[in-house]
Structure of Peptidase M50 domain-containing protein:
Amino acid sequence: MKNLKYVLATLAAVVFTWLLHEFAHWTMGELLGNPMTLTLNSSYPTSGRYADASHYNLVSAAGPMITLLQAFIVYLLLKRKELRWLFPFLLTCLYMRFLAGAMNMINLNDEGRISHSLGLGTYTLPLLVIGILGYLTYATCQTRGYKARLTALTFLLIMVFSSGLILADQAWKLHLL
């Protein structure tokens, strides 16, 4: 039963992290006056374009910023207290941004898009964000004594659940907002 609770916590972490990230994009777009569409794995202007070109980077930055904020909050909570069920909420942030960074080879994602548009090269900001999240995850594992086995199992669960979420989004394109 204890393992089932951890698996369910990991599922909740994946769904929460993905939706919070996409909701941040959606919210920023709406605040800037762009009618937005939100799905499980994307948020974009309903018209297909932003009202102003400057909105592109602002909307792109909102998702990673909220993901970093989530990671810092979880890191601080785990630093103060043993709440192992929260660990997936930290590791999902790292996995999500690592996956987005790798996907920059195919199609520019949030940090890659911003980094490229600022003339920093495609991978500068993605590597910076991954480095920060990697450090927070490593420091948590050291502080709490989490073994490689727990991290690998959690990582595997996150991969499975996030793949399911991404595939569901591609198959059904559920418009949440």
